[in-house]
Amino acid sequence: MSFLSAHPLQPFWNLAAAPIQATALNIALTRDVFGHLQQPTGAAEAADSLGLEPGQAEALLELLWSMGLLTRYHGTAEPLFQTSSLAQQYFMESSDHNCREAWQFRYASLQRSSQLMADQFQLSNPDDEAGHAPFTAGGSWATAARVQIGQEQSIVAAPALMQALTQLEELPTQGRFLDLGGGPGFLAIALARQFSALRGTLFDLPDTAEVAAENIRDAGLSSRICTLGGNIETDDIGSDYDLIICVSVMHFMAAPDLALKKIFQALRPGGIFVSAHALRQNDAASAAEILPFYTPMRLQGRFVPTQADWLTLLEQTGFRHNRCSEVRNTPMAPLQLSLSQR
Ligand SMILES: C[S@@+](CC[C@H](N)C(=O)[O-])C[C@H]1O[C@@H](n2cnc3c(N)ncnc32)[C@H](O)[C@@H]1O
């Protein structure tokens, strides 16, 4: 089941992610990935022959597969990757149709032109704190919650998620909810507005929880939603919740299995856990919607599991009735909304 079609901003999120795909192709051509993958090869073996770390190779090969440049087979132990007929035809030196140098020339010259254009219009490089993605060094979640994630959540994510949540029959509409890693708080605000018998807690890092508290106060909902500042991995997140919602937060957990156990224990028996995260998909077209945005995170060692691995982890934690549906009109890429019961 999937909720709605893509957001009108989708082509523009894609534009922002296109440099990741272009960089991946440039890496592949520079390191002769297509020459090395003439036979179906696993990521570990490819890593060896390409001089990469196994995790690096896996993330790169999966991204190239989603771009139609590799074919992926299901091997017995791990997926196998082989140069696709398209890459064979256009990106191999030995081919009569080789366009490898042509593409790299255009790539480099358009990159230079883009920089020249920015210089001509005196566009400065955003080098201040607000310009950094918060998951890179120097970035701040609280600044992002106030500005960028604030916009994303209030204008795109919260309306999309509310549309999906209100269609879930099992969603508790009274009692206590927790928005774990809730950022600026607009989803918690929307939830409290929609269901007047729900009271909530928003948990996030202390500086970010303060931003949420301001937004909740501005929305006139301080009596129904409280905020709790802390670290999910080390601090108490409360207990006896009827509903826990967690959107795009697990990527940042060093030990996602332990975070899930904590979530499980914080629910009352029978309570509902709704998670919405980008999960890696099995078909190339779906993977192509997600990987340009999430491959850099994988390369930083962040948690971006496959949908199957996520469902297994939920089950191993003790959650029951786990199921996923897709929400397509979210910022950047579709999210998989999973619903589970303690
Ligand atoms: C990508 S944002 C998602 C925010 C919000 N859930 C949304 O969907 O818009 C990730 C959030 O997780 C929070 N976060 C990351 N690591 C955390 C940790 N260890 N403890 C508490 N919150 C954390 C960040 O502060 C941030 O608000």
Bound molecules: S-adenosylmethionine
Radius of gyration, taken over Cα atoms and rounded to an integer in Å: 22 Å
Q: What is the mean predicted local confidence, pLDDT?
A: 94
The CATH superfamily of the largest domain is Vaccinia Virus protein VP39
Instruction: Spell out the helices and strands N to C.
Output: EHHEHHEEHHHHEHEHEEHEHHEE
**Fraction in helix:** 40-55%
Number of strands: 11
- Provide the spatial order of strands within the biggest beta sheet: 1-10-11-9-8-5-6-7
Percent of sequence in beta strands: 15-25%
Largest sheet: 8 strands, mixed
Shape: globular
Catalogue the unreliable spans. none
Number of domains: 2
CATH architecture of the largest domain: 3-Layer(aba) Sandwich
Helix vs. strand class: alpha/beta
Pfam families: Methyltransf_2
Keywords: Methyltransferase, S-adenosyl-L-methionine, Transferase, Ubiquinone
Organism: Gynuella sunshinyii YC6258
Domain O-methyltransferase C-terminal: 162-320
